[in-house]
Design brief:
The protein is mainly β. The protein has one domain: Methylamine Dehydrogenase, Chain H (7 Propeller), CATH 2.130.10. It is about 5% helix and about 40% strand. The chain has 4 helices and 34 strands. Strand 13 and strand 14 form a beta hairpin.
Length: about 450
């Protein structure tokens, strides 16, 4: 049985209700790959003024947040930081009506202007919703708003400082059959001045928590000698099937590593993605996956590397399919399907790469702007939904020659990814939540 088939069967069985109901249980959707089910989604909308178009509802969120919502059944879950300095989770129904909210400890505020201490996106299995914040707070909450368990990663495994994490926590939890996994990648003290020798991480790890109890299933150190800021990574892992075994694949600190989902033990590693040991290549854009291949954006948007999964030990020489330079992003995660991978640059250029050959099929300027494209791509059929940080959302048809078929100006900052379910487009802005439909 192929890797692809094992992956699809495993995730479909795990999220069977999700796929049928077109739920969106995590940042990357039901299959963890940013693929929405094809449907009749609006490609353009108006959300301001008296003459709105395709706007079902909009809600002002009572605090700042940058996370992508999770959707299960009639429940929409969003995280944010309250003005009084608390982490919070809210549940709304699909009409945009608040059902409940709950708070978790003291928030650590964001440093970057359009980020927050609630960048990490929630994830749900249909029983509980699991949330994680920059403060280190991790919790499981049931669908009634009751806290099932709560932990703090920094309390358990060491606090962060301005030296260990320079920016805002961006990694989101992922769900395997055995638990909730988080990749925590940070550096040691910076030292003084750029002339000092590189300072390597000694406290980065991947950790898995039991979904029901919150107890630690395993913790695997991941210290890979990446220098200075390059040791800091804000990527979200992938959960895939390799040779019949479930693995957690992590991009960051100049390497891609695969870990057994049951034990955390490293299965294979690929790298370095930083052969010249650049000191400031922190990694934000996450890897994506399709048909047995991991696509790893790196070098602050400088490279996109295709890696065949499987094997053991150091697979750098044996498992690289290709590397393409100049088409990747610092922040936006690519999306792949049907033998093609689509990648967008910070300045709004899309590229389509053939997975088998590594050849660029086309490059297309969506719309150049002084504002950057920080949201990750969502693909529904032949349509890519891609917001820009100034709140402009573009829809690009990639069925043939690429063309923009929708442009919607929402006039609010967006770094979250679009959620597409049941013909609806749900967009999280920095301060609000919008639902569009025909």
């Amino acid at each position: 049985m192929t890797t692809r088939l094992l992956t699809c069967l495993s995730i479909l069985m795990f999220f069977s209700t999700s796929v049928v109901a077109e739920n969106w249980p995590s940042w990357r959707g039901p299959l963890g790959t940013s693929l929405a089910q094809p449907g009749d989604y609006p490609t353009q909308w108006t959300t301001t003024g008296d003459d709105t178009k395709n706007l079902m509802w909009k809600v002002e969120v009572p605090g700042k947040g940058s996370s992508t919502p999770a959707v299960w059944g009639d429940n929409i879950f969003i995280t944010y930081n309250l003005p009084d300095g608390k982490n919070s989770l809210m549940s709304l129904n699909r009409k945009g009506e608040k059902q409940w909210s709950v708070e978790f400890g003291a928030a650590t505020p964001g440093k970057y202007g359009i980020a927050s201490g609630a960048n990490s996106s929630p994830i749900t299995d249909g029983d509980n919703v699991y949330v994680f914040y920059k403060s280190g707070d991790l919790a499981a909450v049931d669908f009634n708003g009751d806290i099932v368990w709560q932990a703090n990663i920094q309390t358990l495994f060491g606090e962060d400082t301005s030296d260990t994490i320079w920016w805002d926590m961006g990694t989101s939890p992922v769900m395997s059959k055995s638990g909730i996994a988080i990749a925590y990648q940070r550096s040691a003290a910076k030292g003084e001045g750029d002339e000092q020798p590189p300072v390597y991480s000694d406290n980065s790890f991947v950790v898995s928590f039991d979904k029901k109890t919150g107890k630690v299933n395993w913790k695997q150190d991941r210290n890979l000698k990446a220098p200075r800021e390059s040791a800091q990574s804000y990527t979200t892992p992938l959960v895939v099937e390799e040779d019949g075994n479930e693995t957690v694949v992590v991009l960051g600190a100049d390497f891609v590593t695969s870990h057994d989902a049951q034990t955390g033990k490293e299965v294979w590693r690929f790298g370095t993605l930083n052969p010249n040991h650049e000191q400031y290549w922190r990694s934000i854009a996450s890897a994506t996956y399709s048909d047995g291949v991991v696509f790893a954006p790196y070098a602050r948007g400088g490279s996109l590397t295709a890696i065949k999964v499987g094997g053991s030990g150091n697979v750098t020489d044996s498992h690289m399919l290709w590397q393409v330079n100049g088409i990747s992003s610092d922040c936006a995660t690519p999306v792949a399907n049907n033998g093609k991978v689509y990648s967008g640059t910070d300045r709004g250029q899309l590229a389509c790469v053939d997975v088998e050959s590594g050849e660029i099929d086309w490059q297309f300027d969506v719309e150049k702007s002084g504002k950057r494209y920080k949201s990750s791509l969502t693909l529904a059929g032949n349509l890519i939904y891609w917001p820009r940080e100034d709140g402009t959302v573009f829809v690009v048809d990639v069925s043939g020659e690429p063309k923009v078929v929708g442009k919607s100006v929402m006039e609010e900052s967006i770094v979250a990814s679009p959620v597409l379910v049941d013909g609806l487009v749900i967009i999280r802005t920095l301060d609000g939540l919008y639902c569009m439909g025909k």
